[in-house]
Known about the structure:
Oligomer: heterodimer
Order of helices and strands of chain A: HHHHEEH
Radius of gyration of chain A: 17 Å
Largest sheet of chain A: 2 strands, antiparallel
Largest interface: A-B, 22 and 24 residues
Structural class of chain B: mainly alpha
Strand content of chain A: 5-15%
Distance between the termini of chain A: 49 Å
Largest sheet of chain B: none
Strand order of the largest sheet of chain A: 1-2
Shape of chain A: globular
Distance between the termini of chain B: 61 Å
Number of strands of chain B: 0
Strand content of chain B: under 5%
Number of strands of chain A: 2
Helix content of chain B: over 70%
Amino acid sequence: MSDKEKFLGEFEQMAMLALIHLTDNAYGAAIRQLLHQQVERNVAIGAIYSTLERLEKKGMVESRLGEATPERGGRPKRYFKLTAKGHGALKRARGAMDTLWQGVAIKSFSFS
Amino acid sequence: MSKEVYSPPVVAISIMKLILPKRVLITLLGDLTEEFQFRVQQDAAKAKLWFWQQSLTTSFIYFNEIFNSPAFVKKLNVIVPLLLFVIAFLLLTWLSYAYSVKGYSSEFWPRLLAGYAHLAILEPAFWLNIYSQIKAIDGVGFLFYPPAVLSTLGNFTILFLLNKGPNFTALKMACWGYSLMLLPYVGSIIYIGSHTLADKQIGPFIMFGLLSFFYMVLPVSYLVHRKLKKVQT
Protein backbone atom coordinates (compact mmCIF):
# COMPACT_ATOMS: atom_id res chain seq x y z
CA MET A 1 0.00 0.00 0.00
CA SER A 2 1.44 3.39 -0.99
CA ASP A 3 1.60 6.28 1.48
CA LYS A 4 -1.11 8.05 -0.49
CA GLU A 5 -3.47 5.11 0.05
CA LYS A 6 -2.42 4.54 3.66
CA PHE A 7 -3.16 8.04 4.95
CA LEU A 8 -6.38 9.94 4.68
CA GLY A 9 -6.55 13.66 4.05
CA GLU A 10 -8.52 15.96 6.33
CA PHE A 11 -11.39 16.38 3.89
CA GLU A 12 -11.49 12.65 3.19
CA GLN A 13 -11.89 12.02 6.92
CA MET A 14 -14.64 14.66 7.16
CA ALA A 15 -16.54 13.14 4.25
CA MET A 16 -16.23 9.63 5.69
CA LEU A 17 -17.39 10.79 9.12
CA ALA A 18 -20.36 12.49 7.47
CA LEU A 19 -21.31 9.12 5.94
CA ILE A 20 -21.30 7.57 9.41
CA HIS A 21 -23.41 10.39 10.85
CA LEU A 22 -25.96 10.25 8.04
CA THR A 23 -26.17 6.42 8.06
CA ASP A 24 -28.75 5.46 5.40
CA ASN A 25 -29.32 8.99 4.18
CA ALA A 26 -25.77 9.79 3.02
CA TYR A 27 -26.14 11.39 -0.41
CA GLY A 28 -24.51 14.48 -1.96
CA ALA A 29 -26.84 17.26 -0.83
CA ALA A 30 -27.21 15.83 2.70
CA ILE A 31 -23.42 15.45 3.11
CA ARG A 32 -22.90 19.01 1.88
CA GLN A 33 -25.46 20.40 4.33
CA LEU A 34 -24.09 18.41 7.25
CA LEU A 35 -20.56 19.69 6.65
CA HIS A 36 -21.91 23.22 6.30
CA GLN A 37 -23.96 23.08 9.51
CA GLN A 38 -21.70 21.01 11.76
CA VAL A 39 -18.21 22.22 10.84
CA GLU A 40 -19.08 25.44 8.97
CA ARG A 41 -17.38 24.18 5.84
CA ASN A 42 -19.20 25.40 2.76
CA VAL A 43 -17.85 23.07 0.10
CA ALA A 44 -18.75 22.59 -3.55
CA ILE A 45 -20.81 19.51 -4.31
CA GLY A 46 -18.12 18.59 -6.87
CA ALA A 47 -15.50 18.40 -4.11
CA ILE A 48 -17.66 15.88 -2.23
CA TYR A 49 -18.28 13.73 -5.31
CA SER A 50 -14.65 13.86 -6.38
CA THR A 51 -13.47 12.82 -2.88
CA LEU A 52 -16.04 10.04 -2.47
CA GLU A 53 -15.32 8.70 -5.96
CA ARG A 54 -11.60 8.57 -5.13
CA LEU A 55 -12.39 6.70 -1.90
CA GLU A 56 -14.70 4.37 -3.81
CA LYS A 57 -11.86 3.51 -6.19
CA LYS A 58 -9.71 2.66 -3.15
CA GLY A 59 -12.50 0.41 -1.84
CA MET A 60 -13.19 2.53 1.26
CA VAL A 61 -16.63 3.69 0.16
CA GLU A 62 -19.42 2.07 -1.86
CA SER A 63 -22.43 3.64 -3.51
CA ARG A 64 -25.85 2.73 -4.87
CA LEU A 65 -28.50 4.61 -6.80
CA GLY A 66 -31.66 5.56 -4.95
CA GLU A 67 -35.04 7.01 -5.75
CA ALA A 68 -35.74 9.93 -8.06
CA THR A 69 -37.88 12.75 -6.65
CA PRO A 70 -39.66 15.70 -8.33
CA GLU A 71 -37.69 18.33 -6.37
CA ARG A 72 -34.53 16.78 -7.83
CA GLY A 73 -35.86 17.24 -11.36
CA GLY A 74 -36.59 13.52 -11.53
CA ARG A 75 -32.96 12.61 -10.97
CA PRO A 76 -31.97 9.76 -8.64
CA LYS A 77 -29.96 10.07 -5.43
CA ARG A 78 -26.63 8.34 -5.05
CA TYR A 79 -26.21 6.94 -1.55
CA PHE A 80 -22.72 6.41 -0.16
CA LYS A 81 -21.67 3.98 2.54
CA LEU A 82 -18.40 3.27 4.30
CA THR A 83 -16.90 -0.20 3.71
CA ALA A 84 -15.00 -2.27 6.29
CA LYS A 85 -11.77 -1.07 4.65
CA GLY A 86 -12.97 2.52 5.02
CA HIS A 87 -13.78 1.99 8.72
CA GLY A 88 -10.29 0.57 9.23
CA ALA A 89 -8.61 3.49 7.46
CA LEU A 90 -10.63 6.01 9.47
CA LYS A 91 -9.72 4.28 12.75
CA ARG A 92 -6.03 4.27 11.77
CA ALA A 93 -6.19 7.98 10.90
CA ARG A 94 -7.78 8.77 14.27
CA GLY A 95 -5.21 6.62 16.09
CA ALA A 96 -2.36 8.45 14.36
CA MET A 97 -3.79 11.85 15.24
CA ASP A 98 -4.53 10.84 18.86
CA THR A 99 -0.92 9.65 19.25
CA LEU A 100 0.43 12.91 17.92
CA TRP A 101 -1.92 15.01 20.05
CA GLN A 102 -0.89 13.27 23.28
CA GLY A 103 0.89 15.70 25.58
CA VAL A 104 0.37 18.61 23.22
CA ALA A 105 -1.12 21.78 24.58
CA ILE A 106 -1.68 24.71 22.28
CA LYS A 107 -1.58 28.00 24.05
CA SER A 108 -3.95 30.65 22.86
CA PHE A 109 -2.22 33.95 22.26
CA SER A 110 -3.84 37.28 22.70
CA PHE A 111 -2.46 40.35 20.94
CA SER A 112 -4.68 42.83 22.70
CA MET B 1 -50.42 29.70 -1.22
CA SER B 2 -48.82 27.59 -3.89
CA LYS B 3 -45.06 27.36 -4.18
CA GLU B 4 -43.54 29.12 -7.18
CA VAL B 5 -41.51 26.82 -9.42
CA TYR B 6 -38.09 28.05 -10.41
CA SER B 7 -35.64 26.37 -12.72
CA PRO B 8 -31.90 26.38 -12.07
CA PRO B 9 -29.80 28.45 -14.55
CA VAL B 10 -29.78 26.55 -17.85
CA VAL B 11 -26.33 27.81 -18.93
CA ALA B 12 -24.76 26.65 -15.65
CA ILE B 13 -26.28 23.19 -16.21
CA SER B 14 -24.98 23.16 -19.80
CA ILE B 15 -21.44 23.95 -18.61
CA MET B 16 -21.59 21.03 -16.19
CA LYS B 17 -23.01 18.73 -18.88
CA LEU B 18 -20.05 19.64 -21.03
CA ILE B 19 -17.36 19.02 -18.41
CA LEU B 20 -18.60 16.51 -15.83
CA PRO B 21 -18.28 12.78 -16.48
CA LYS B 22 -21.57 10.99 -17.13
CA ARG B 23 -21.13 8.72 -14.10
CA VAL B 24 -21.61 11.67 -11.69
CA LEU B 25 -23.58 14.16 -13.76
CA ILE B 26 -27.16 13.03 -13.15
CA THR B 27 -26.97 12.43 -9.40
CA LEU B 28 -24.87 15.56 -8.83
CA LEU B 29 -27.34 17.70 -10.81
CA GLY B 30 -30.12 16.14 -8.73
CA ASP B 31 -28.37 17.17 -5.51
CA LEU B 32 -27.84 20.72 -6.74
CA THR B 33 -31.43 21.02 -7.97
CA GLU B 34 -32.79 19.72 -4.65
CA GLU B 35 -30.84 22.30 -2.63
CA PHE B 36 -31.65 25.01 -5.17
CA GLN B 37 -35.41 24.36 -4.79
CA PHE B 38 -35.02 24.74 -1.03
CA ARG B 39 -32.97 27.95 -1.28
CA VAL B 40 -35.10 29.53 -3.99
CA GLN B 41 -38.11 29.69 -1.61
CA GLN B 42 -36.08 32.03 0.65
CA ASP B 43 -34.35 34.22 -1.93
CA ALA B 44 -34.52 33.45 -5.66
CA ALA B 45 -31.65 35.74 -6.69
CA LYS B 46 -29.32 34.38 -3.99
CA ALA B 47 -30.29 30.82 -4.92
CA LYS B 48 -29.35 31.43 -8.56
CA LEU B 49 -26.06 32.95 -7.51
CA TRP B 50 -25.41 29.93 -5.23
CA PHE B 51 -26.20 27.55 -8.09
CA TRP B 52 -23.77 29.37 -10.39
CA GLN B 53 -21.04 29.33 -7.74
CA GLN B 54 -21.55 25.60 -7.10
CA SER B 55 -21.62 24.69 -10.79
CA LEU B 56 -18.52 26.72 -11.69
CA THR B 57 -16.49 25.37 -8.75
CA THR B 58 -17.63 21.82 -9.53
CA SER B 59 -16.82 22.22 -13.24
CA PHE B 60 -13.38 23.57 -12.34
CA ILE B 61 -12.71 20.56 -10.04
CA TYR B 62 -13.57 18.06 -12.79
CA PHE B 63 -11.82 20.11 -15.50
CA ASN B 64 -8.70 19.96 -13.35
CA GLU B 65 -9.17 16.22 -12.87
CA ILE B 66 -9.36 15.62 -16.62
CA PHE B 67 -6.18 17.66 -17.23
CA ASN B 68 -4.28 15.85 -14.49
CA SER B 69 -5.39 12.35 -15.43
CA PRO B 70 -2.63 10.11 -16.86
CA ALA B 71 -4.98 9.07 -19.69
CA PHE B 72 -5.37 12.68 -20.86
CA VAL B 73 -1.63 13.42 -20.57
CA LYS B 74 -0.92 10.22 -22.52
CA LYS B 75 -3.29 11.27 -25.31
CA LEU B 76 -1.81 14.78 -25.36
CA ASN B 77 1.68 13.30 -25.52
CA VAL B 78 0.70 11.41 -28.68
CA ILE B 79 -1.47 13.94 -30.51
CA VAL B 80 0.69 17.07 -30.08
CA PRO B 81 4.02 15.44 -31.09
CA LEU B 82 2.34 13.80 -34.11
CA LEU B 83 0.99 17.18 -35.17
CA LEU B 84 4.40 18.81 -34.64
CA PHE B 85 6.07 16.01 -36.63
CA VAL B 86 3.76 16.61 -39.60
CA ILE B 87 4.26 20.39 -39.41
CA ALA B 88 8.05 19.98 -39.23
CA PHE B 89 7.93 17.65 -42.25
CA LEU B 90 5.84 20.17 -44.23
CA LEU B 91 8.23 22.99 -43.32
CA LEU B 92 11.24 20.91 -44.34
CA THR B 93 9.54 20.04 -47.64
CA TRP B 94 8.70 23.69 -48.22
CA LEU B 95 12.26 24.83 -47.41
CA SER B 96 13.68 22.22 -49.78
CA TYR B 97 11.25 22.43 -52.69
CA ALA B 98 9.73 25.93 -52.71
CA TYR B 99 11.33 28.16 -55.33
CA SER B 100 10.05 31.55 -54.26
CA VAL B 101 8.10 33.38 -51.59
CA LYS B 102 5.72 34.89 -54.14
CA GLY B 103 2.28 35.38 -52.62
CA TYR B 104 3.67 35.60 -49.08
CA SER B 105 3.22 38.74 -46.98
CA SER B 106 5.88 41.44 -47.27
CA GLU B 107 7.02 40.92 -43.65
CA PHE B 108 7.58 37.21 -44.13
CA TRP B 109 10.91 37.26 -45.99
CA PRO B 110 12.78 39.33 -43.33
CA ARG B 111 11.34 37.03 -40.64
CA LEU B 112 12.49 33.94 -42.53
CA LEU B 113 15.98 35.48 -42.84
CA ALA B 114 15.91 35.94 -39.06
CA GLY B 115 15.37 32.15 -38.72
CA TYR B 116 11.65 32.15 -37.94
CA ALA B 117 10.79 29.45 -40.50
CA HIS B 118 7.83 28.21 -38.44
CA LEU B 119 5.95 31.44 -39.23
CA ALA B 120 5.45 30.07 -42.75
CA ILE B 121 2.49 28.04 -41.49
CA LEU B 122 0.65 31.30 -40.78
CA GLU B 123 0.87 32.26 -44.47
CA PRO B 124 -2.09 31.20 -46.67
CA ALA B 125 0.33 30.79 -49.63
CA PHE B 126 2.19 28.09 -47.67
CA TRP B 127 -0.92 25.90 -47.47
CA LEU B 128 -1.97 26.68 -51.03
CA ASN B 129 1.32 25.44 -52.50
CA ILE B 130 2.34 22.68 -50.10
CA TYR B 131 0.61 19.90 -52.03
CA SER B 132 2.56 20.62 -55.22
CA GLN B 133 5.78 20.71 -53.18
CA ILE B 134 4.99 17.33 -51.59
CA LYS B 135 4.42 15.96 -55.09
CA ALA B 136 7.84 17.26 -56.12
CA ILE B 137 9.65 15.19 -53.43
CA ASP B 138 12.16 12.98 -55.25
CA GLY B 139 13.89 11.24 -52.35
CA VAL B 140 14.57 11.40 -48.63
CA GLY B 141 17.96 13.08 -48.94
CA PHE B 142 16.48 16.44 -47.89
CA LEU B 143 15.73 14.89 -44.48
CA PHE B 144 19.37 14.07 -43.85
CA TYR B 145 21.84 16.64 -42.53
CA PRO B 146 24.88 15.26 -40.65
CA PRO B 147 25.22 18.12 -38.09
CA ALA B 148 21.55 17.63 -37.10
CA VAL B 149 22.07 13.86 -36.83
CA LEU B 150 25.09 14.39 -34.57
CA SER B 151 23.27 16.94 -32.41
CA THR B 152 20.31 14.54 -32.04
CA LEU B 153 22.60 11.67 -31.05
CA GLY B 154 24.18 13.97 -28.44
CA ASN B 155 20.76 14.93 -27.10
CA PHE B 156 19.65 11.31 -26.82
CA THR B 157 22.88 10.42 -25.00
CA ILE B 158 22.03 13.14 -22.46
CA LEU B 159 18.48 11.77 -22.11
CA PHE B 160 19.64 8.17 -21.63
CA LEU B 161 22.20 9.23 -19.00
CA LEU B 162 19.55 11.24 -17.15
CA ASN B 163 17.14 8.33 -17.42
CA LYS B 164 19.59 6.13 -15.49
CA GLY B 165 19.01 8.30 -12.42
CA PRO B 166 16.59 6.91 -9.80
CA ASN B 167 14.18 9.84 -9.71
CA PHE B 168 13.84 10.62 -13.39
CA THR B 169 10.05 10.89 -13.58
CA ALA B 170 7.78 11.16 -16.64
CA LEU B 171 7.50 14.90 -16.02
CA LYS B 172 11.28 15.30 -15.95
CA MET B 173 11.59 13.21 -19.10
CA ALA B 174 9.01 15.42 -20.83
CA CYS B 175 10.71 18.65 -19.66
CA TRP B 176 14.21 17.54 -20.64
CA GLY B 177 13.19 15.74 -23.84
CA TYR B 178 11.04 18.51 -25.28
CA SER B 179 13.54 21.20 -24.19
CA LEU B 180 16.41 19.37 -25.92
CA MET B 181 14.16 18.99 -28.96
CA LEU B 182 13.53 22.75 -29.13
CA LEU B 183 17.06 23.83 -28.21
CA PRO B 184 18.70 23.50 -31.67
CA TYR B 185 15.87 25.43 -33.36
CA VAL B 186 15.83 28.20 -30.74
CA GLY B 187 19.64 28.18 -30.77
CA SER B 188 19.69 28.63 -34.55
CA ILE B 189 17.36 31.65 -34.29
CA ILE B 190 19.59 33.19 -31.59
CA TYR B 191 22.74 32.47 -33.63
CA ILE B 192 21.28 33.98 -36.82
CA GLY B 193 20.08 37.02 -34.87
CA SER B 194 23.44 37.64 -33.26
CA HIS B 195 25.62 37.19 -36.39
CA THR B 196 25.79 38.98 -39.70
CA LEU B 197 25.20 36.25 -42.24
CA ALA B 198 24.62 36.29 -45.98
CA ASP B 199 21.20 35.03 -47.12
CA LYS B 200 22.71 31.79 -48.44
CA GLN B 201 24.41 31.04 -45.11
CA ILE B 202 21.15 31.14 -43.16
CA GLY B 203 19.50 28.07 -44.78
CA PRO B 204 21.79 25.44 -43.17
CA PHE B 205 21.17 26.89 -39.69
CA ILE B 206 17.40 26.75 -40.16
CA MET B 207 17.66 23.19 -41.52
CA PHE B 208 19.86 22.21 -38.58
CA GLY B 209 17.28 23.44 -36.06
CA LEU B 210 14.26 22.05 -37.87
CA LEU B 211 15.79 18.65 -38.63
CA SER B 212 16.96 18.19 -35.03
CA PHE B 213 13.38 18.96 -33.98
CA PHE B 214 12.03 16.56 -36.62
CA TYR B 215 14.35 13.71 -35.54
CA MET B 216 13.56 14.11 -31.86
CA VAL B 217 9.84 14.79 -31.62
CA LEU B 218 8.49 11.24 -31.99
CA PRO B 219 11.23 9.38 -30.05
CA VAL B 220 10.85 11.84 -27.13
CA SER B 221 7.09 11.31 -27.22
CA TYR B 222 7.70 7.55 -27.09
CA LEU B 223 10.11 7.86 -24.13
CA VAL B 224 7.60 10.00 -22.20
CA HIS B 225 4.84 7.54 -23.11
CA ARG B 226 6.91 4.64 -21.72
CA LYS B 227 7.49 6.56 -18.49
CA LEU B 228 3.77 7.37 -18.17
CA LYS B 229 2.92 3.70 -18.70
CA LYS B 230 5.25 2.79 -15.85
CA VAL B 231 3.51 5.34 -13.60
CA GLN B 232 0.10 3.83 -14.45
CA THR B 233 1.21 0.25 -13.76
